[in-house]
Amino acid sequence: MDEQKPKITADHLANERTLLAWVRTSIGLMAFGFVVVKFSLFVKQLTLLLGKQFVIQQKGYSAIMGIVLVALGAVSLLLAYIRYKKTEKQINENRYQSSSLLLLLLIVLIFLISVLLIAYLIKST
Description:
This protein has helices at about 5-50, 60-90, 100-125. With about 120 residues, it is an all-alpha fold. The chain starts with a helix and ends with a helix.
């Protein structure tokens, strides 16, 4: 029984480290989305400041993409916590089963946003 306790403790600590990695990822996504939205606002202000001499073409998609990135960061944070609690319960019951659904979902969503951003950048240049 004494050998089982250190193993369970190590498993819980690994689960917490994984949660913290997801938290960092979520913060990174939200920060990147915030930067994209603020850059969009900066371009609008620059256009107003320069007046009609210099017109900067802007379609408004970058603000939408930034908001989507912030929302994706918030959703990934929530899903990471749910995964953490599920894993904690499985460790306590000694029946852990790995799942990569959260990782797959996040990768697919970030890939789609990346494709949309690339298309937007190509179209705007």
